[in-house]
Amino acid sequence: MASETPATITVEQLPELLKNDTSVKVAGVDVDGLLRGKLMAKKKFLSVAKAGFGFCSVIFGWDMHDQTYFRELGISNKENGYRDLIAVPDLSSFRRIPWENDVPFFLISFHDPDTNETLSACPRSLLRRTVDKLAEKGYGAMAGAEYEFYQFRAPQNHDGTERNTSSTAAFLRDNAVTSLPSLTEGMFGYSITRPVHNQDYYYGIFDACLKFNCGIEGWHTESGPGVFEAALEFGEIAQMADKASLFKLVVKSLGSKHGITPCFMAKPRQGLPGNSGHMHVSIVDKDSTNLFARAEEDKDAAYPDIRFLSDMGRHFLAGLIDGLPDIMPILAPNVNSYKRLVENFWAPVTVSWGLEHRAASIRLIAPPTASAKATRFEVRVPGADTNPHFVLAAILALGWRGVEKKMEIAIPPLGKGEDVGGTADKGQRLAKSLKEATERFMRKESVAREVFGDEFVDHFGGTREHEVRLWDEAVTDWEVRRYIEAV
């Protein structure tokens, strides 16, 4: 069964809750969406559960491979000595890790040690700030997440025995990426039989997610060699972001136990579809009523696609359309992300929208094809390589900006059968590279600065500039193979 978590947990209840435990695992989320944490003695955890504890700020001063940024950023640097931040456990995030003997687990958020205010670059805190802004008006937000990901078998040693997944990165230092074998071969989306090939792993993930309180409501093979797709259970937006991060933890942890390397990068294989990370969002009132649904059909709507969409929903959509180009480093945060966002691979490349239109960057799901209570927007630009807290914060912030400004929808919907070929008459072309996206994100008049503030934009933008520089300095296998002899 799923982890039994009280609706509210107080510090005073912790000793009883953890009475049979000797240790506690904690983790926070860095800008790349990676969980960074440690195991703590129960006694230590109980002593710091209320006020928080010191956690080295370097996790905001280095990249996903622990290399400090070329240009030192404000949160963590040599000048401040890579000082400690204050890590505050979120007691409401309590669950137990089923594949680690049910050790207690808590998520943490990071605070500035000088002001004790939440850290601007802390993904959980950035989303919470946006959620709190809506809460002040009596509103909440709901969300859902879908992830596609490739899976590779651990490569074999020379004697034919299987390496463990921890050696996969080492294997790829000396071998071609294409030599890494897929979990299954060929294209077979929605297969009933393919999961049986790896039954313990397939059902193990589903069961572990349920127990770890990040449950899956849909789980199937996707088109591609060794590709699975998971639709996580719909829920409150901040909890949804946590569950999306924890879902990746489940998959990677169980993968390591089965000799499998899950891969969430946006485009792991040339010539094949990429890995999407679609996000669904709606706004509700205090009674959980969907505020994007229209009570009665608006037969005079500007476009037939929005005849069942409320005025709030229309303003929200307008905000998404207006701000989408300015937040691309959040929706496509890595150099590889832009290999997925190309024409003819079921990935959106323009600012576009439409009712039940899977070629658009923003898909409206509403009556008559869906029930009124299910009315929502699916943003289809993000890949599986994104940070879910940043993505959901950005979608919510842009949409709410549209509501506050009562913005009008600036472009018509895509017609049925109409594709997004990147032409000017079908919406603005989204950035084609991380460099282009980051420059727009960081410019003075960026919508990102308006909704998130300069401190966050300067920090996150600086981390993306670091990725771009690493790519600019890299010499790829493609370059060597193409030019080594011919030029």
From TrEMBL:
GO terms (BP aspect): biogenic amine metabolic process; glutamine biosynthetic process
GO molecular function terms noted in the UniProt entry: ATP binding; glutamine synthetase activity
Gene3D superfamilies: Glutamine synthetase, N-terminal domain (3.10.20.70), Glutamine synthetase/guanido kinase, catalytic domain (3.30.590.10)
Tree of life domain: Eukaryota
SUPFAM superfamilies, per the entry: Glutamine synthetase, N-terminal domain, Glutamine synthetase/guanido kinase
Keyword terms of this UniProt record: ATP-binding, Ligase, Nucleotide-binding
A Pfam match: Gln-synt_C
UniProt-listed InterPro entries: Gln_synt_N_sf, Gln_synth/guanido_kin_cat_dom, Gln_synth_cat_dom
Stored SMART domains: Gln-synt_C
Ranges for domain GS catalytic: 123-487
Family under the similarity heading: Belongs to the glutamine synthetase family.
Protein name: Glutamine synthetase
